[in-house]
Amino acid sequence: MIYSMLTFLPFLGWFKNYTKRDFVADLIAGLTVAVVLVPQSMAYALIAGLPPVYGLYAAAIPPIIAALFGSSYHLATGPVAIVAFLTFTSLVSYAKPGEPKFIELAILMAFLVGLFQFSIGFFRLGFIINFVSHAVILGFANAAAIIISTTQVPALLGIKVEQKELIFQNIYEILRNIHNTNPYTLAIGLVSIALIVGLKRVHPYFPSALFTVVLFTGLSYLFSFEAYGVKVVGEIPRGLPLPQFPSVDWDLFDRIVGKAVVVGVVGYMEAYAIAKLIASQSKQKIDTNQELIGQGLSNIIGSFFKSFPVSGSFSRSAVNFKAGAKTGLSNVISALFVIATLFIFAPLLYYLPRAVLSAIVISAVVGLIDPKKFLHTWKTNRYDGITALSTFALSFIMKPDYAIFIGIFISLSLFLWRSLHPRMVRLARDPATRTFVNAQTYNIPTCPQMEVVRPEASIYYANVENIVESLQDVMEEKKALKHLIIDCESVNYMDGTAVEVLEGFIQESRKKGVNIAFVNLKAPVYETMKSSGLADLIGSENILPSKGYAVGVLFRRIDHDYCKRECPYALFDECYTVKDYIKIQKADHIDLRVLYELLSEREDLDVYAGKRYSRLIVKGPNSEIELKGEDFYADELGRYYLSNSKLVKIGDALVPLGQACKECELLNGYVLLGKELREVAQNIAKIVR
Fold first, then answer.
1. What is the CATH number of the domain that holds 510?
2. Which of 100, 114, 120 is nearest to 249 (CA)?
3. Of 133, 430, 501, 632, which is the most exposed, with the fewest CB atoms less than 10 Å away?
4. Which residue numbers in the chain have pLDDT < 70?
5. pTM for the model
């Protein structure tokens, strides 16, 4: 019973072990957020194409509902720039911003956004949101910040232009009317930006926006700014509007529904990302579906009080958390402050210059522009980088909701492409660590008669043909191949189509004299093979528990005469049983002191020795390597080696020696250094140069 009550009324959990000290913390945090919320909400209403008072309406009831029914204690819900901008661009085609028809559509949009979010959360379908890549939001948010800034330029200049859907059209309108700039309005706007930014640098928690609003409202009242052509906010109705169901325009309803879905998805993703980030610091568990319910109800109920769509604010949530909020009560307190403002201070806001609100918007959204995130995303994952850059570019040449849809399509298409063309890793045994590693990365040769390949994905109808094609390429490359070992460590699933294609591949391979073996089969995959008859075709002798075990078993069934006559490698311990290869093993001793002295003679190197010469650090112009006695190997002829898997630092990256030293002489997965220590020192110098 208690569990169900907390599920439907999560705010009841606030008061478990709640103390007077917690209330004081919530009170301070709530008031701290409120002084940011009041000016921001009025400014963001302008982004949405609405009179400033509607920002206060959106900051009054929705934060209370979101706090009561959401799962995050610190998420501050209310007007946000991105959602306000999407609201504007979604509706500007159907009505003129600021007019009654536009206002009605914005309120209806809030209701539809809330209905969508609530439905997704109520039916536990929050996982659907995961199909929208964060790269899409990154690209759109950066583009939106630039576009939003341009929409505020006319108010900053004191000129009147017709707002268009595309940024290039708006820039053209601004340039066409720039000669009408009001110097007084421009001065107020620039000074406001300087105050907001400057005071924030003095102290990050100083309410610079509220201070600027109070300052210029007072100056406007004293010096009659209206007489100089400066536009002011004007009459603001006192109090909250009475609740009423949003007006529905059935002629436009079907067009707005689709746009409401976009606003709902973007708004929730922004809110959830913020809640999750703060939860990682507060250690609070966030429930995706409960948060959707909270956001949905805040928009639905908010629409009854003339609110436009709202979401979680990053800046206000961060202020709330850092101010020491303990529960969602802090957000209720900040909303009550807004309601008090509507009842008590609304008439005083008449004289507030609109240029100040535009300055608040520009100061806030400029912080969303972050080129470093694009670079980081590109370096981390090229596919995400392509998605982010594509969405960013498309946002300037088409409607933002179209850009988001195409960005989602690009993201899903690239995901499917990766799934259709899984990475195929060719494995080789590292002689130093005795584990199987990426042969290409570590530059370790593979056995001519036994190849180990690992598909980095489950095998199903869409990718099995590409996987088989890659396996056939390996067989074509290796003419002496006897056994192809498929490592299924990354294969979690196999469907019926994959089974049929693999059956044909195994039969064709046997005709060519190549045996197919499987290792590391997971239980669901083995059950599929067994029930379909594929396991019988493969044979129990070719279904083996591990790569190392498979090598030991299958080595007996390769051409040992080929090993003696043709194969130049000794990659496995079994190789030494059929041919007298030079055996490489841990060096019994190497004099690091002498090696240090030899390396120190070189002017192009910096060499550092540990206590009692237990280790050496050798630094070249752009790389370095750390050497210990146990890193060295030796053969029967007294020659010294380093393993290909030994890491070298090149710049900020750690790179395997086999990959870093392309000019080095390699033997069986080792880098040959030489017999005499002077020769060893010369080759180590070659590595770090």
1. 3.30.750.24
2. 100
3. 501
4. 1-7, 165
5. 0.79
